[in-house]
Write a structure and sequence with these properties.
Blueprint: H1 3-12, H2 19-31, H3 42-53, E1 63-70, H4 85-96, H5 100-108, E2 111-118, E3 129-131, H6 149-168, E4 173-179, H7 183-195, H8 199-202, H9 211-228, H10 235-242, H11 245-259, E5 264-266, H12 269-281, E6 289-291, H13 298-307, H14 323-341
Parallel strand pairs: 1-2, 1-4, 2-3, 4-5, 5-6
């Protein structure tokens, strides 16, 4: 099967969740031994999990996060506070267990899979590494499309296969993360194009740009939107033109999770840019997406509003890596446990 067939096959398997089951879950909440609505947002959260998993007793206990890494040609335009070599360095740090997502995944009892879909440097084999390198980074979107169609679908298929790989190993609750110097620039271009928001409204400081760096980054996003906007007539073409390979892989990961009827937790700005693409291709994907948090990147609030998603918390996070998504695992399992394990008034004899 070709990479394009793998991705389009997963798209065809995405279906809406059972709205009647969602309503039944809310009705069960109303009958539990507590004042109605007293658990606030945990109640619809648990009902959403019930609808996704197809049961009034949801048990999303197998946790896993896939972190997709790739480099970006647009980094040459000085849009990041760090050099491109940091991407490969951070991948090695993930594999050595020294990054924030390692610590948080361990604390959450989550499996961690690192996927190289486009790091510009070689990365040594490691048990936690999935090598699916499509290319050594994308091309500079200032000068042309970031990816070819073959590269686009290869990266999307890698994401689908990562979701299937983790589900086959017992993961029920999934999350996606990313690493790639320059990827907030690609995410900003995608977000502006897909939501219609101005470049300045969705472009932030990323890994710590000063005022001059931010102005340069905004100018780059405006230039690529002018260059590619009229030709990016559908979501996959926008993704191909703006990049990046890890964003394409995350798009495939979300589609793959939805095709498996698995709840998938969104992290921050880059991860949610991929969700914009996935939901534009298959609106039913939204049913399976759970927004962990609101990032400090200004474009993240625009993305979440466009998707109609309410984040579970706002801790001022802007790291990426899947770090915020992993933090949300406990809240999601708590919401499921309340719906599943609490007694109704009738069951308690009250």
């Amino acid at each position: 099967m070709t990479a394009e067939a793998t991705f389009r096959g997963a798209l065809a398997r995405v279906h809406r969740v059972d709205e009647k089951l969602y309503q039944r879950a809310l009705a069960r909440h109303a009958a539990l031994t507590k004042p109605p609505g007293s658990l606030g947002a945990l109640e619809p959260l648990g009902a959403r999990l019930a609808a996704v998993l197809g049961t009034l007793k949801p048990r999303p206990e197998g946790r896993a996060v896939a972190v997709f890494a790739a480099d970006h040609g647009v980094a040459a335009a000085g849009v990041s506070a760090y050099p491109q070599s940091v991407t490969a360095g951070m991948v090695r740090n993930f594999l050595a267990g020294g990054a924030a997502v390692n610590a948080l995944a361990a604390a959450a009892g989550a499996k961690l899979l690192i996927v190289d879909v486009g790091v510009a440097a070689d990365v040594d084999d490691h048990p936690a590494l999935w090598s699916r390198k499509v290319a050594r980074g994308t091309r500079n979107m200032l000068h042309g499309p970031a990816m070819t169609r073959a590269e686009l679908f290869a990266a999307c298929a890698a994401g689908v296969e990562a979701a299937e790989h983790l589900a086959a190993r017992g993961a029920v609750l999934l999350a996606g993360g990313e690493m790639g110097i320059g990827n907030t620039t690609a995410a900003a271009a995608l977000t502006a194009h897909l939501t219609g928001a101005p470049a300045r409204a969705v472009t932030g400081r990323g890994s710590g740009l000063d005022d001059a760096g931010l102005a340069r980054k905004v100018a780059v996003v405006e230039q690529v939107l002018e260059r590619h906007g009229e030709q990016a007539t559908e979501p996959l073409e926008a993704l191909r033109r703006f990049g990046g390979l890890e964003i394409a892989a995350l798009t495939g990961f979300y589609v793959g999770a939805a095709a498996l009827r698995a709840p998938v937790v969104l992290d921050g700005f880059i991860a949610t840019a991929a969700a914009l693409v996935a939901a534009a291709l298959a609106p039913a994907v939204r049913d399976y997406l759970f927004a962990a948090h609101r990032s400090q990147e200004p474009g993240h609030a625009v993305q979440l509003q466009h998707l109609g998603l309410t984040p579970l918390f706002d801790l001022g996070l802007r790291l990426g890596e899947g770090s915020g998504a992993v933090l949300a695992f406990g809240l999601l399992e708590g919401a499921a446990a309340v719906l599943r394990d609490m007694a109704t008034f009738e069951e308690a004899g009250l």
